[in-house]
Amino acid sequence: MSKKDSSHSSRMLKILPPILTVALVLLCIYIGSRMSIQGLISYTPSNVLLAAAGILALFAVKSLSVIFPLSVLYIVSAFWFGKWVGLAVCYLGLVVSCTIPYLLGRHFGAGMVEQLLCKYPKLRQLQSVGDSNQLMFSYLLRIVSVLPGDLCSLFLGACSVDYRRYLIGSLLGLSPMMILHVLFADLFAQSLSGSFWEALTPQTIVAIVVLVVVSIISSVILNKRYSPKEPPADRT
User: Fold this and answer.
1) Are 95 and 121 in contact (CB under 8 A)?
2) DSSP category for residue 31
3) 157 is in which domain, residue-wise?
4) Does residue 25 fall inside a structural domain?
5) CB 218, CB 143: distance < 8 Å
């Protein structure tokens, strides 16, 4: 790719997200002005499909901005749809929020790869993994603290990582925290309705404990494994 094409792609990458974000954010502002956070959580949608489409639109907004964290969407999904449907909606939402910035990076982000590699030294070390295993590369970027989530998607798209491997790796990396948020939110919703102890089954407790332990251990090990190595001290 020529410098001119790279410059054009970089400009497009800067222009497109704000335009798409403004359109979606205006819709969210309108909806938000008509409903408080408490109302949002306690709201029971009369049309489940329409409500699910609204949540997916918010996942799309999140993929292009930092207006709110993904955890908010996980929690609202659990409150609105319950545990199992909430998990399904969240997985669909993650597909949306991972795909949009990936496509932007794939088509317009060629010029950003070297910039990010220079800005984040640990990223270059992780990229060596991607040369042999793109799925693991996508997974590691979600677990190891290197880039913000949406920037990970842009970067992996710009690196032309295979979409299927990218999506599987990203979902594997994002799943533990998403599932935890949905389970805890569902338990809280059950407590509000007075059936907390019925929802707190042994299976739920085991699932929460396993997810917490696995998330902590894998995050610590991988962050330690791929942390930048300190250069040896000069003894002369």
Assistant:
1) no
2) H
3) 3-225
4) yes
5) yes
Q: What is the pTM of this model?
A: 0.74
Largest CA distance in the chain: 74
CB 165 within 8 A of CB 135: yes
- Whether residue 13 is contained in a domain is answered as yes
SS3 content of the chain, % helix, strand, coil (to 5): 80, 0, 20
Q: How many domains does the chain have?
A: 1
Domain presence at residue 103:
yes
Q: Does residue 233 form part of some domain?
A: no
DSSP 228: P
How many Å apart are CA 87 and CA 211, to the nearest integer?
15
> What tens digit of pLDDT does each residue of 217-233 get?
766 666 666 554 544 44
pLDDT digits (tens, 9 = 90+) for 144-201: 878 877 788 989 999 989 999 999 999 989 998 899 899 888 888 777 666 655 656 7
Q: In this structure, how many other beta carbons lie within 10 angstroms of the beta carbon of residue 84?
A: 11
